[in-house]
Design goal:
The complex is a heterodimer of chains A (149) and B (533). Chain A has 149 residues and is mainly α. Helices cover 53% and strands 0% of the residues of chain A. Chain A has one domain. The radius of gyration of chain B is 22 Å and the shape is globular. The chains are: A mainly alpha (149), B alpha/beta (533).
Chain lengths: 149, 533
């Protein structure tokens, strides 16, 4: 297992490969994959407290693959990925979460989802009041609190 | 270092500590509160940044063991399927809560009499009624009076808008003929007492940058401080000392620079929650109190109650509110009271959840196996994101002595103070209650047309409600404090937090915790002349 919070070059390569397997690019939705350089840079620069677990996950992945993940044929790579997710425990879950949390804050991805590119504060959102007549049946049915002696 | 003595020393500036400090302030006594945390800065709250959701997995995690802020203390919870969640700062866990605001029901105070289980409380609902009302005004509650299946409340602000999610739930509940009602919440829906109204910043559980969600740092504390209460932050209390008469003489704490201090006090009030309070009492063992302070009953730390949460959620075709609204919207009390034909005693409240943000949706759905890797990821994500509806059954946890808080023999906090250890199992009664809740939740979701239904039962990081570990009662052999919060053993020691609950009810407890704190403060004020008799 790596001691350093910095990922090695081989680990970065495997991270990029597995990220693309989790979320590949899509022409249909006009979005990059999670192996996109901007998203990868975001992942690496914000690893922070997750760095050790991500490194552990990548060590596990490397062990399963036996060579760079990208060097495997498609069938073998898929099998390794499946085994990685099944046997990787909390470290694998952390790696997947880190990939997804950076992917789903990328401007291009959010735009494709129809979401605004901003923090919630200070603008917030508008919530429609809704149809309060839906409460009428509840009021009509009534009821009573259980009595306490 | 020894400080000048104070009349009243309060340990903990959270929900109950703030309420008791504010109430006692009108006595003009010298009141000092010590808190291990500091003042929070709303400008640094998650919703101010684009990475707001990512913060929930790290520095803004609800788990102190994950969050690991300097103010947090570690908890050994390996022997518990439910993990403790809390927040340590001025405001305590009101900084990080859903602001869902039900009260215990009158019947919750008479559990033994009504259902033959657990124990009755030594007080009844009526004793707390004026304090519930006072607390609702101080915290600033929004809601709709008149729920036929809940205690009568008078929220000073109108309820939250229904939004997109609530009508979908409401139609399903109406189809099934089941009770629902807009939740009382401590989210301001109008400008209120210097707080700005809610602008729907998203999931406001990890603190509200707008200040619309009530937390005691922005409600009780400004009033208490103006009234003369002194609050010292970043001061972690190690132990309560006693004198030869067996009275509390003050506390030993570490100040913000880590320097050990002794603070003498005439009265000590503990407000550290159902884990922190027994931890402190057990850490205050001495020659005179070898099993921990105020523990002649042996019940300090025992009878821990969490409220196991049975959560079920699914996805509807219509858009839901996602992260664009406070998380909870409606409650139901349809299954709150005992009906033995269900196979369990007591019951549960329900809170409906509006949805999830995109990162949380992606991460949780991938973990559940409903969001695939690969080419189909995008299609499935678009079907899930912004379409989630949730149903959570808050199951009444009955007190059991084997569910307990003790001191860990190895684990310590950053000041070297022994950390708490949790031993907890979910009872058979609670399991049946959870199964019942999940079955009803499935019916509701299916009536709403939901698919891809997922379950979290219990919610693992769902130990929001820390109750019962220093219970109140009239019998010193069966309780830690009396019917007005005073220790049976130490006549100038009071406890005002959730640890004094006798039973847990099936609702979020903060409203009741604060009403109890105000009630105890009122009892103290009425007895000032003979407080220690």
């Amino acid at each position: 297992m790596s001691d350093s919070n910095e990922l090695t070059s081989a680990q970065r390569d495997d991270l990029r490969t597995i990220a693309a397997m989790i979320v590949p690019a899509s022409d249909e939705y006009k979005v990059p994959g999670a192996d996109d350089p901007t998203i990868q840079a975001d992942i690496l620069s914000t690893l922070g407290r997750d760095a050790a677990l991500v490194a552990k996950a990548l060590d596990h992945l490397a062990k399963l693959a036996g060579k760079p993940l990208a060097a495997l044929d498609n069938a073998r790579r898929d099998a390794v990925a499946k085994e990685f997710r099944a046997s990787g425990g909390g470290a694998a879950a952390t790696l997947v979460r880190v990939v997804l949390q950076c992917y789903y804050r990328d401007d291009r991805v959010l735009r494709s989802l129809g979401l605004e590119l901003r923090a919630p504060f200070p603008k917030g959102y508008v919530l429609e009041d809704g149809d309060w007549s839906l409460l009428d049946p509840v009021k009509a049915r009534g009821g009573a609190l259980r009595r306490a002696p | 270092m020894k400080n000048d003595p104070v009349d009243v020393l309060i340990i903990g500036a959270g929900a109950s500590g703030a309420a008791v400090a504010w109430s006692l302030a009108d006595t003009k006594m010298h009141i000092l509160c010590l808190d291990q945390g500091g003042w929070m800065k709303p400008s640094e709250y998650p919703s101010t940044g684009r990475d707001w959701e990512a913060k929930f997995y790290g520095e803004w995690s609800s788990s102190p063991n994950i969050r690991k802020r300097p103010e947090d203390y570690p908890i050994n919870e390996e022997n518990s399927p439910i993990k403790v969640v809390n927040f340590n700062a001025v405001g305590g866990s009101t900084v990080m809560y859903t602001a869902h605001w039900p009260r215990l029901h009158p019947s919750d105070f008479k559990v033994r009499t009504l259902d033959g289980v657990a124990d009755d409380w030594p007080i009844d609902y009526d004793a707390l009624t004026p304090f519930f009302e006072e607390n609702d005004r101080m915290m600033g509650v929004s809601g709709l009076s008149g729920d036929p299946l809940s205690p009568l409340t008078h929220p000073p602000m109108p309820p939250q808008p229904l939004g997109l999610s609530s009508p979908i739930v409401a139609k399903a509940m109406n189809k099934l003929g089941w009770h629902w009602w807009p939740s009382d919440t401590t989210v301001a829906t109008t400008d209120y007492e210097g707080r700005a109204r809610c602008i729907n910043l998203g999931h406001c559980t990890p603190a509200c940058a707008q200040g619309a969600k009530s937390s005691t740092d922005i409600t009780y504390w400004p009033h208490a401080i103006r009234a003369g209460v002194e609050l010292k932050t970043h001061c972690r209390v190690r132990e309560i000392l006693t004198n030869e008469e067996g009275m509390a003489s003050g506390v030993v704490y570490y100040d913000k620079d880590g320097v050990e201090q002794f603070q003498p006090a005439e009265v000590v009030i503990i407000a550290c929650n159902g884990v922190g309070t027994p931890r402190l009492l057990l850490n205050s063992a001495s020659g005179k109190f070898p099993n921990g302070l105020a523990n002649s009953s042996g019940l300090v730390g025992k009878n821990l109650m969490f409220h196991p949460y049975a959560q079920i959620y699914g996805y509807v075709e219509e858009p839901t509110d996602s992260n664009r609204a406070p998380p909870t919207c409606l409650w139901s009390k349809e299954w709150y009271d005992t009906d033995l034909s269900r196979g369990f005693v007591r019951g549960y409240g329900v809170q409906f959840v509006r949805g999830a943000g995109p990162v949380f949706e992606a991460v949780s759905s991938e973990q559940k196996g409903i969001l695939p890797w690969g080419a189909d990821h995008h299609r499935v994500f678009r079907k899930l994101n912004g379409h989630r509806l949730g149903f959570s059954a808050i199951c009444e946890d009955l007190p059991e002595e084997h569910n307990r808080v003790t001191l860990d023999s190895v684990l310590k906090d950053s000041h070297g103070i022994p950390a708490p250890k949790i031993d907890y199992t979910i009872s058979e009664n609670s399991r049946k209650m959870m199964e019942h809740g999940l079955a009803r939740g499935r019916e509701v979701l299916e009536a709403a047309g939901a698919t891809d239904i997922c379950i979290n039962a219990p919610i693992p990081w769902g130990g929001w409600h820390l109750l019962g570990t220093a219970r109140m009662g009239t019998d010193p052999e069966r309780s830690v404090v009396n019917e007005w919060g005073r220790s049976h053993d130490v006549k100038n020691l009071f406890i005002v937090d959730g640890s004094i609950f006798v039973t847990s009810g099936g609702v979020n407890p903060t409203s009741t915790i604060q009403a109890l704190a105000l009630y105890i403060a009122d009892q103290m004020k009425q007895r000032l002349a003979n407080l220690f008799d």
